[in-house]
Amino acid sequence: MYEIMEEEEFEFEAMELPDITVELPDISCCFFPQAEFNGKSDSLFFNDGVRRIDFVLVYEDEDMKEIDKNRTFQKRKVSASLMKMGMELEAARSVVDEKLLFVKVHMPWDMLCTYAEVLHIKLPIQPNDLSTTSSPFNFLSCITRHFYPSEDLIAKETEYFTAPFEKDRLEYFYVKDRDLFFTPSMRSRMAYYILSRAPYEVRGNIKKFGVTKLLDGGVYKAAYPLHDCRFNVRSKEEECPNERYLLYNEWAHPKSFYKMQPLDLIRKYYGEKIGIYFAWLGFYTAMLALAAIVGLGCFIYGYTTQETSTWSKEVCDPLIGGNIVMCPQCDKECTYWRLNSTCESSKVKEKVPYTACGRCIRVSLGIGTVLFWIVLILASVVAIIVYRLAIFFSFSTRLQSDLKELEPFKEYVTAQMATSVTASIISFVVIMVLNILYERVAIWITDFELPRTKTDYENSLTLKMFLFQFVNYYSSCFYIAFAKGKVVGYPGQPVYLLGKYRNEECDPGGCLIELTTQLTVIMGGKAIWNNIQEVLLPWMKNLIFRYCTRVGSEKVIPRWEQDYQLQPIGKLGLFYEYLEMVIQFGFVTLFVASFPLAPVLALVNNLFEIRVDAWKIITQFRRVAILAVASNAMIIAFTSDMIPRLVYYWSFSVYPYGDHSSHTMQGYINNTLSVFDIQDFSNKNIEISDTHQDTTDNMNTVSTTGM
């Protein structure tokens, strides 16, 4: 992926830089020293104890075979290029596996200043001496301080005025200690910038460069900056700040789940990108709180008042719903049924209806591939619809007889509900399989397009992934919300899908229950799958790796080798974390009208997400270098029967259309039904067996919805 990073364009001012475009140096005299491990397991320095390790490269010491000679040549070329640019290198052999060599990289002061100016890194000029306005809630500090990280462990960061660094104006910057002026995250960022541009092969006009390509080709096994200590044990080095240890205890440890995030320390340790992700995630989670309270209130109110719903009473009343015989929902095998058989599902309703050129060819190929996968998603949705139609027919004929012994659950497990749950589970499995396959295709297409810069690459990949996932996750929900039950025809002339399957109808209580089931399965299943993929798998990989490379307890393992045993953060970094939250936000906003508990589930998920992500990157990974409103309106209009209820409540329940003296919902159920003469049924539509003849002997008409 990141080989395009090496061609990234920056709009920086022209300045003198170490020349990396000249002919590669002679490698015959460019061997760097190899030092024996000094036994200091927590050391972050070269063996001299002075030069800080800014980055580590790991490779396997191959035998001089023909197949490995080119790799050895490339590694020597990279090392020679780095030393020519000013970097200092020191190698150390692994204490666990003698084949592994760790190359420690150090950037001298002059080199740091040069590349800090190149990257326009903002650094402090002087401390902030402006007075700040005290908060009116300071009197609550005796209570709120318990919800913040301990100031005895994580001191409040001093605020500074900052400016983009300029080497020629060094005297204007606040440099108290040269060793601490550039934070470790800044140093590793500059080191990676140089490593990603280090040439290793020149053939005519073709120049190959960048350690990322060598990582992909297996020349190097890993490249990473160091953690400052173990996450659960303080470093023995006196000058070590133990920031990883502090972050674990005050942020990632389960005992600190109630505390606010130490965003300044996160930003200082991991850099701005990860810092802003956790700041954004915390803000988004806080904003979900109000929506969660409202949604939970709506759910509790609806649950506690379901027995007082007028239309639910009419559906469940044996004298009203029990005397209304409904048309069969499928051909031949399905029978007539009474309206009160849907009593339970009718209770999950609203109480009162309130309103609320080469490149062009490559890009064209990429667009065509994305469209093909979107069509594939739609085809999978159609396949699931066919499954629903076929399985509903099967459940309608056998389900009740198969559940004779489960009498307490018999009234809840209807053919409609069983079809909805099984179809939702199958839909979720299809969604996750398509996601895994499409992710590989999307990365391959974006690589094939050859974007000029890293930003172009990320924008192109983001667009492809979001378009696909939007259709993949939401298409089945949109079908239930806006399409299901809308084109079913009428008794005697139903509409058929593919000329064979009769279009499915919504339950008399509406399609909201099915939509809620679909959302619950997808949101819940997605959260479980993400945690398995992001937490359980890395933990198991680390456990297996430690077991396979275990050494005697008498051996001391250096810091760089301890970090090598951790998992690398993926090439896409935080991309999937942001994408996960965007998809979740879509569920919360697009379908909250049908599933008021969606914000509550999202809030609970995010409270865990923050701490799980924190635990994951601290303990398991190496250090890292307007539709919503319209959609809710459409859900109300298409999925529920809120608008027909409003019309009845305000117009048809009183004079001149109704007989009631005041606005009421009484009689609404009967008003929505029409009468159908069963003699008008064709033999294709219905075939009455002897066992159901008694139901129709004394009637000439039945009731039907949707007229």
TrEMBL record:
<keyword id="KW-1003">Cell membrane</keyword>
<feature type="transmembrane region" description="Helical">
    <location>
        <begin position="624"/>
        <end position="643"/>
    </location>
</feature>
<dbReference type="GO" id="GO:0005886">
    <property type="term" value="C:plasma membrane"/>
</dbReference>
<dbReference type="GO" id="GO:0061590">
    <property type="term" value="P:calcium activated phosphatidylcholine scrambling"/>
</dbReference>
<protein>
    <recommendedName>
        <fullName>Anoctamin</fullName>
    </recommendedName>
</protein>
<feature type="transmembrane region" description="Helical">
    <location>
        <begin position="581"/>
        <end position="604"/>
    </location>
</feature>
<dbReference type="GO" id="GO:0005254">
    <property type="term" value="F:chloride channel activity"/>
</dbReference>
<feature type="transmembrane region" description="Helical">
    <location>
        <begin position="370"/>
        <end position="395"/>
    </location>
</feature>
<feature type="transmembrane region" description="Helical">
    <location>
        <begin position="277"/>
        <end position="303"/>
    </location>
</feature>
<feature type="transmembrane region" description="Helical">
    <location>
        <begin position="461"/>
        <end position="482"/>
    </location>
</feature>
<dbReference type="Pfam" id="PF04547">
    <property type="entry name" value="Anoctamin"/>
</dbReference>
<dbReference type="GO" id="GO:0046983">
    <property type="term" value="F:protein dimerization activity"/>
</dbReference>
<keyword id="KW-1133">Transmembrane helix</keyword>
<keyword id="KW-0472">Membrane</keyword>
<feature type="domain" description="Anoctamin dimerisation">
    <location>
        <begin position="45"/>
        <end position="263"/>
    </location>
</feature>
<feature type="domain" description="Anoctamin transmembrane">
    <location>
        <begin position="266"/>
        <end position="305"/>
    </location>
</feature>
<comment type="similarity">
    <text>Belongs to the anoctamin family.</text>
</comment>
<dbReference type="InterPro" id="IPR032394">
    <property type="entry name" value="Anoct_dimer"/>
</dbReference>
<keyword id="KW-0812">Transmembrane</keyword>
<dbReference type="GO" id="GO:0061589">
    <property type="term" value="P:calcium activated phosphatidylserine scrambling"/>
</dbReference>
<feature type="domain" description="Anoctamin transmembrane">
    <location>
        <begin position="349"/>
        <end position="630"/>
    </location>
</feature>
<dbReference type="InterPro" id="IPR049452">
    <property type="entry name" value="Anoctamin_TM"/>
</dbReference>
<keyword id="KW-0325">Glycoprotein</keyword>
<dbReference type="InterPro" id="IPR007632">
    <property type="entry name" value="Anoctamin"/>
</dbReference>
<dbReference type="Pfam" id="PF16178">
    <property type="entry name" value="Anoct_dimer"/>
</dbReference>
<feature type="transmembrane region" description="Helical">
    <location>
        <begin position="415"/>
        <end position="438"/>
    </location>
</feature>
